[in-house]
Design brief:
Shape: globular
CATH superfamily of the largest domain: Aminohydrolase, N-terminal nucleophile (Ntn) domain
CATH topology of the largest domain: Glutamine Phosphoribosylpyrophosphate, subunit 1, domain 1
CATH class of the largest domain: Alpha Beta
Largest sheet: 8 strands, antiparallel
Number of domains: 3
Bound molecules: 6-O-phosphono-alpha-D-glucopyranose
Radius of gyration: 25 Å
Distance between the termini: 12 Å
Structural class: alpha/beta
Number of helices: 18
Length: about 600
């Protein structure tokens, strides 16, 4: 969704702004723009094309102070006039992420005061409000603070004034924003990856913070206007971690990064001889003794990770678990059990529905919250008492891959820790699980070797319009995830069913034009699954079976069997995810779709 970059420096900031926007492209956007102050004049460039087009249009633009934006339309269609930055007169420029809920009322008031609007956005009211305070003699900082006091909603903003060429103001509430600290130059961005090329030193603003930035430094004020110090973090990531390198797409790169991402996520545990609750935070040991059930809240791919975890938590730890889509839970009247551990799962830590569901859970009386998240300092991490950071590194492809498998690894750790605490795991079982976890990265590496064979298989899908994915038990959510990957990036309509449900409806759809993908691990449900697949074959359906070694599936006419290298027991869902990611990727390549930035989708869904 929308992205912000800003800079104040002794050099021309336009290349910095453009490079930052390029880094934010993955979030999804439909227009982009920037403004710089040049000789006390605002120079604005906007485009409904890609950042590359904005770059061409900015060839003759330069300045030492600027703000830039990628917009994902909410209020007003994607168009140049709705693209940010928005101006008030020739004086004030604003970029904004989030939604201003009372913008209509503010717009009416500002119109009555003589302000005219050139866009349909909610953002433009911010520019005019700041203008109205600033032209009455306030400093830019005070004008922004007065404006923020009038806004209802969520925002991260960057503000500058033409007659104040050395100063940048920014603020956040409900949408993330951070400061980048360079050598005698300062930056702002909605996402750290936008700044890695210019600095690794970051200051995460907190809810309600406003910052005043100039060449001589920055000051941060909290929601009450009090000057505060915020810690400077040095990012472990380098610019290469967000570069494409040898790969054709970020999705392909991220699929291949999974062995390392899993190794990083599991590092602390795999290097130790036993499992301890402390990996979820200092208060985890005490909290885990108090809980009697789990409620998992998440969206999209993260929700699928939660669905897998339910099987693990109930079977291995013997703890009741429910999994709910965050956007449903947040509006449902539910009965809170204060002894339930609420687990939110999120790659970004910013997803509006997941965040709202977490707050809803807290408001209804839930006391224990745990976030499994890939972004340190994100809103979901900050708002949860307990946490586990997945260490997948930046995920740029809109379709989530390495975030999912590392979430599963994190959820498996949670299962084991709870099982141990509840006396469901003896020392021998614990060592066996630790051994399997240590082996996991190389097991994933072995599955990745199937890539050429899957690329070949994908050729059969390119001209299909529908596909059916089947799985059972632990692997039903993996079938759901496989179907989601395929529809997200290849636009082929794909549905997933627990294979036992086949004859209760979807079997009616099966014919020779409907490829049926089956996730077939060597587990207790294998024989049942085989019978389900017979039902498909008998109706002429073409089968694509991802089978473990020793499952005795044979390729034959209409049956394509892809043999997985080994069966990984409880960790099997992680291995079985990989070929389905590769399948979706190669089908999308065949179809020539925009793999990393599929139409209409965004990486971080920060609005409802
Ligand atoms: C978007 C992304 C998905 C992701 C979902 C939840 O729809 O495109 O890949 O699974 O949001 O995001 P989260 O960051 O909370 O995991």
């Amino acid at each position: 969704m929308c992205g912000i970059v800003g800079a104040v420096a002794q050099r021309n900031v336009v290349p910095i702004l453009l490079q930052g926007l390029q880094r934010l492209e993955y979030r999804g956007y439909d227009s982009a723009g920037l403004v710089v102050v040049d000789q006390k004049k605002l120079q604005r460039v906007r485009s409904t094309g890609r950042v590359a087009e904005l770059s061409q249009r900015s060839a003759n633009t330069s300045g030492h102070l600027g703000i830039a934006h990628t917009r994902w339309a909410t209020h007003g269609v994607p168009s140049e006039r709705n693209a940010h930055p928005h101006l008030s007169g020739d004086l004030i420029a604003v970029v904004h992420n989030g939604i201003i809920e009372n913008y209509e009322e503010l717009r009416t008031r500002l119109t009555a005061q003589g302000y005219s609007f050139t866009s349909d956005t909610d953002t433009e009211v911010i520019a005019h409000l700041i203008h109205s305070h600033y032209t009455k003699g306030s400093t830019l900082l005070a004008a922004t603070q007065a404006t923020l006091a009038e806004l209802v909603g969520a925002y991260a903003i960057g503000v500058l004034a033409a007659d104040n060429p050395g100063q940048l103001i920014c603020a956040r509430k409900g949408s993330p924003l951070l400061l980048g600290v360079g050598d005698g130059e300062y930056f702002i961005a909605s996402d750290m990856s936008a700044l890695l090329a210019v600095t690794k030193r970051m200051v995460y603003l907190e809810e309600g913070d406003v910052a005043e930035i100039s060449l001589s430094g920055y000051r941060v004020f909290d929601a009450h206007g009090k000057s505060v110090q915020r810690t400077v973090h040095t990012s472990e990531l380098n610019n290469e971690s967000v570069e494409l390198g040898e790969y054709q797409h970020y999705m392909q790169k991220e699929i291949h990064e999974q062995p390392q991402a899993l190794a990083n996520t599991l590092e602390a545990v795999c290097n130790s001889q036993s499992l301890i609750p402390g990996i979820f935070g200092a208060e985890a040991a005490a909290a885990f003794t108090q809980i009697d059930s789990i409620l998992i809240l998440a969206c999209g791919t993260s929700h699928h990770a939660g669905m897998v975890a339910r099987y693990w938590l109930e079977e291995i730890a013997g703890i009741p678990c429910t999994v709910e889509i965050a956007s449903e839970y947040r509006y449902r009247t539910s009965v809170a059990n204060p002894k339930t551990l609420v687990v939110t799962i999120s790659q970004s830590g910013e997803t509006a529905d997941t965040l709202a569901a977490l707050n809803h859970a807290k408001a209804t009386g839930h006391l224990y919250t745990l976030a499994i998240c890939n972004v340190p300092e994100s809103a979901i991490i900050r708002q949860s008492k307990l946490r586990l950071l997945t260490r997948a590194g930046p995920e740029i492809g809109v379709a989530s891959t390495k975030a999912f498998t590392t979430q599963l690894a994190g959820l498996f750790l949670l299962t084991l820790v709870l099982a141990k605490q509840r006396g469901k795991l003896n020392a021998e079982q614990e060592q066996k699980h630790l051994h399997d976890l240590r082996h996991l990265p190389s097991a994933v590496q072995a599955v990745l070797k199937l890539e050429p064979a899957i690329a070949k298989l994908a050729e059969n899908f390119a001209n299909k319009h529908n596909a059916l994915f089947l799985g059972r038990g632990l692997h039903y959510p993996i079938a759901l995830e496989g179907a989601l990957k395929l529809k997200e990036i290849s636009y082929i309509h794909a549905e997933a069913y627990p294979a036992g449900e086949l004859k209760h409806g979807p079997l009616a759809l099966v014919d020779k034009d409907m490829p049926v993908v089956a996730v077939a691990p060597n587990d207790v449900l294998l024989e049942k699954l085989k019978s389900n697949l017979q039902e498909v074959r008998a109706r002429g359906g073409e089968l694509y079976v991802f089978a473990d070694a020793n499952t005795r599936f044979q390729s034959s006419e209409g049956v394509h069997v892809m043999q997985m290298p080994e069966h990984a027991g409880f960790l099997s869902p992680i291995l079985h995810t990989i070929p389905l990611q590769l399948l979706a990727y190669y089908v999308a390549l065949q179809k020539g779709t925009d793999v990393d930035k599929p139409r209409n989708l965004a990486k971080s869904v920060t609005v409802e």
